[in-house]
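Q&A log
Question type: sequence-to-structure
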Amino acid sequence: MSDLILIVEDEPKLAALVRDYLQAAGYRSEWLADGRQALERLKSGHNTSNQPAAVLLDVMLPGLDGLEVCRAVRMFSDVPILINSARVEELDRLLGLELGADDYVCKPFSPRELVARVKALLRRAQGRLAPATLVPAGGGFAVDEAGQRIVWREQVLSLTPVEFRLLRQLLQQPGRVFERSQLLDLIHEDFRDVSDRVVDSHIKNIRRKLAALEPAQECIASVYGVGYRLDLA
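Response status: OK
Response body:
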């Protein structure tokens, strides 16, 4: 059975257009126009055969806005989320601290580009389901490239794809200082124009997740005016 994509969009014509393109690409789709209904749908379908493979989430929604939906979903699910918004000034925030969005597109967007981004999200998500091959990386870390997972002291870190790429890069060269611009290239391989503050937000997220496992551990150091360094004990 083909993957199910949940479309959360309050513009019926746009939702219908996206559904047509997804169907042409071989995907099933489900449409909801209300943020609160979308959140309930994702809760009820979590860890069931009815769980969507990915979510296309608008920001301006009735009931509950897309940012709050994204934040709430990340409390119980790592389903890939692609946010779309016409409010360009919010883009840093969309990918920022605690929201957990995996990607975004700006309105108006190309439906073909949207489908391409969905395919990329699903490839990464399916990689996480592959058989684990953990490679020790020092300091109690181990990296599963195929599954896009990082294990720390025998506990799996719940990382978004962006957070995985950032932490993996730091682990590859512990002790090296990476400039924000270098890390930004990892976040957006298409070189879109976003602020390097996005890097700060994601690093803060990674630190928070590490601290949840061991509060006293602070292995990612800030280098003032430059970037970040990973220090392994």
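Response note: The mean pLDDT is 84.
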